[in-house]
Amino acid sequence: MSKYNDSATISDSAAPSVCKLAFAAVTLLAGCAQTPERTVSEASAPVEAAQFEPAAAPVAPAEAAPVSVRADAPLRYIVKKGDTLWDIAAYFLNEPWQWPEIWYANDQIANPHLIYPGDVLTLVWRDGRPMLTRDQPLRVDRVSPQVRELPLDEAIPTIPIEKIRDFLRGPRVVGAKALDNVPYVLAFGEAHLVEGEGSLVYLKRMPKEPAAMYQGVRQGKKYIDPVTRRFLGWEVVPVADIQIQMPGDVATGLITRSYRETRPGDLLIEPPMEHFESNFFPHPAPQTADVYIISVFEGVSQIGQYNVVTLNRGAEDGIEVGHVFDVMQAGRKAQDPYTGRQVVLPERYAGELMVFRVEDRVSYALVMRAEHEMHVLDRARAPDPYR
Known about the structure:
Largest sheet: 7 strands, antiparallel
Number of strands: 19
Structural class: mainly beta
Radius of gyration: 24 Å
Order of helices and strands: HEHHEEEEEEEEEEEEEEEEEE
């Protein structure tokens, strides 16, 4: 069975061979549609995280779980503009990440791994297994009678990319050494304490051959793994885009875009890539213990659908773009009415998230399903189709 990173290449080396075949059959498939309404519980007071006690590594199941088709799954669905693959899959499956297991690619159709608005998806059974087939209507150019192919960027994406675009300019975690000896803002063209878009800035510690553009950031808190206490990286808060005008010991630059007021001492790092791969494959995360949510984009206290979260594991730990996790809400404490002692309640399933970007020691994921509120320090585990 098989279950995102701005430019990461998907690795299926850890996936079972069956998954590799499924992935090969859907290499460019995209998606996430209008998800059927799912109830998200009303926010309540934040729960207290349970104590971290390293558990024995779970044993992988002997065989892949069967695909679970919804009892109310439609037999036919017409793809619409604005759909995404994850949400289309949610119409048919109880677990949308199992989409690659039921997709049937027609070799007689150009670009068989992509779906577009207007395509008709039909649910069928073959040899007792559910499969989704696609009937691709002819797309005829009004000027010419020849059939034309739509560009790749019109294909249905896997997840709602617009939900993570703001992440590029929001607080994030960078590697442990990413801020060592980087350039910084010395002063401004005018004798001001802060500046904004269109202002001249003076910069120090520039390399001899600087890049054309940098992102100005402000160093934030230090992130420590809640289990191993390993240093994971620094939080950086983007403040501006800065274009280098003249290099030198004291270089000059121009603030071309401002997100927050720029101050002396703000650091310059390479800007994040603006492109996220929108076509990748959800597949179950490995049976790895001790994966936790360590921060949430925009700093909200309670996490819901389409929030971006940071996990305490990255490429060094085998995390890949497309990995899907179940989120287990940390057990809150309740007072025993007889002993008066505080008892930690069992954790419970709260939702699902999928990794879209991977760094060395951390990774970023988008919450795809939220059945209960989630919080920082909730645990993420390999998905359990039998829950």
